[in-house]
Amino acid sequence: MNHHYHFFLLGGALFILLTLWVSRFAARFGVPSLLATLALGMAFGNGGPFDFDYNYPSITLHISEIALSIIIFTGGLETRWKSVQPVLWQGISLASLGVLLTMMSIGFLAHWWLHWDWIPALLMGALVSATDAAAVFSILENIRIKLVPGVREVLELESGANDPMAFFLTISLTTLLIPGGDQDGWAGILGHFLQSMVVGLGTGLLAGKFIHLFLKRIPLKKGQFPIVLLAWVVILYAVNSLLGGSAFLAVYVTGIILGNSPWGQRELNLHFFESMAWLMETGLFLVLGLQVYLRQLPEVLWEGLLISAGLMLLARPVSVWVSLALFRGISAQKKNFYAWVGLRGATPIVFALIPVVAGVPYADKMFNIAFIVVITSILFQGATVRWMAELTGVRKQ
To answer: Is 138's pLDDT higher than 80?
Structure first.
């Protein structure tokens, strides 16, 4: 009898329990739980002669995209439209123009400091351009501090809405690096962008309205509600992948519509998806940790630290200040807080798998650099959110 299947199940279940214990233990010493989960994956993955070898970038990418879809959908469910509406355009500006400016800033740094060609340099910028919904939601929840009105809403809206832009830029620039890839050049990229956003937004709106009507009209048992919603998240992901739309935008819009509409068992389903988001987030960081080869990190350590420092101290502040320049009433303290809490989590590592799977130049280096950027962001920015909130005066007394 083949026992590999049973060992796989046993290992997976034990990993989940071990992750929970390690996260709680690490929290006592001020270490973010996401970093502890990532470290656990690194410890058991490809770090040494006694570890098992996990090197399945294509499978990891697909699993990660589904996990991100569920996390983003949950973020949409938990978004309160009345609270977000006053800061809607601020969040959209950060999620679109902010991502573009971050990509360009890191692209310039990689080109001038590291002497990379322009397209790979811009691709590196695209990979780390988006703040991570899982990291932002998790750390803001863990620190349990109250922020002045509007601040938390802007950060959550940005982190939930900026993945589509970063994902699209990553796909487009990766395609340009593939021989015979996008023959239409930058004009084709613009056309694909409009298609991605329109299809993603359209399917998200239609699905949100249809699912709400379905949940109100069709009698379901309590345990069937969350299964139906999970099925729709997968459907939206698959449909948008086939139609060239943004699956992340679609699930986020659908989540917002359902989260702000009355229907039976709504609160019960919110609790279910909170648990699912935690499971997806934990599994995501764990699998990504397994995918990283520790012995390769020292080769790009200084480049990764350089990109990370440039992101935290230059690219992110510039993108925040420029993106919010036209909005009145936003204090310098709030902008500085937004600039520092631009947390990078699993998203850059997931997106860095795209060029790896495509086999483009610099791909392995980009993946390892993205990993270093995530570690430093969670370690330095994530661990100092409370301190920065007090320093900038955005903590509600």
So the answer is: no
